[in-house]
Amino acid sequence: MGTMKAGRIDFGTKEFRVKEVPIPSAGPGHVRVNVRAAGVCLSDVHLIDGLVAPLRNADAERTLGHEVAGTIDVLGSGVVGWTEGDRVALQALIAKPWGVDTMGVDYDGGWAEYVVVPQEVLVAIPESLPFEQACIVPDAVSTPWAAICHTADVQAGEAVGVWGIGGLGVHAVQLLKMIGAAPIIAVDPLPGPRQNAVLRGADAALDPTDPGFAEALREINGGRGLDAAFNFAGFPGIDEQILPLLNPAGRLTIIGLSGRPLTVQNSVALVAHQQRILGHYGYQPPHVEQIVRLLQWGRLDLSQSVSAVLPLEQAQEAVRQLEAKDGDPIRLFLSP
Q1: pLDDT digits (tens, 9 = 90+) for 75-107
Q2: What CATH number is given to the structural domain containing 84?
Q3: Cα dihedral 154, 131, 300, 197 sign
Q4: Range of the domain at 112
């Protein structure tokens, strides 16, 4: 058995490094995928810095990477409907009786030359879709899509605010534009992400640290607040800023992780106006398939989401750039 390079983290010590490990074998019902592109997500950064930790096996060592695309290299016994060389993206979530197993957390991910996954997570991708764009469909695009159309159930004509215009938030803006939300107000303290949001379809982009922020947001919407708001940033204080801006029956959907308590300052208003605070995690297989079809039929364009591609050996540098927002990257990618 040969070896390969992989970006590995020891969850117990939080030590991360790229090292040589054995090439995995594909067991029954599994396939081995030759990784062609793997996204670097803020969740990966938080796993390394310790803000996010596995719910199980907290001392395990894992290969990171939950946004992966490549070609099938080896079929395990019992795998049907696939052939070697097929182009695929990999769903990162596997439903289990005890919850959800996440690639790169509960089992080895795709910051490696090869990754082994169950056949049920495979999603066929067309030749027209580059691997870099395909690999972010499960997570960076499917997660906001599921949050918008399933958890928050946003309808055409609803006023929506998006806090945090990073790798997920910028795609949320695109998707909200596609389904007819109006107006779409992007919120980010950095000018680069605000500019990206306007280019992707936001009707306005505001700085949440501006003293006149709340007044400016309501002025954009004719004195009204928001029907739906999404927190993709995960920084403390964002949810508390959003709640007073919700209209009656408004929904706050929290995707970004802060690890801090959330305080509802006015519970009477929350109850009287029948507002809702919703948590959202990940996506379901149909959401991934929907996004692939939207891309295939030209309803969605992810070409501007590829900020840079780095070799796998520079995984630590990619993490640094994303954490420091060096160059305001939308998505960085690793290529084995």
Answers
A1: 999 999 999 999 999 999 888 787 888 999 999
A2: 3.90.180.10
A3: positive
A4: 3-139+283-334
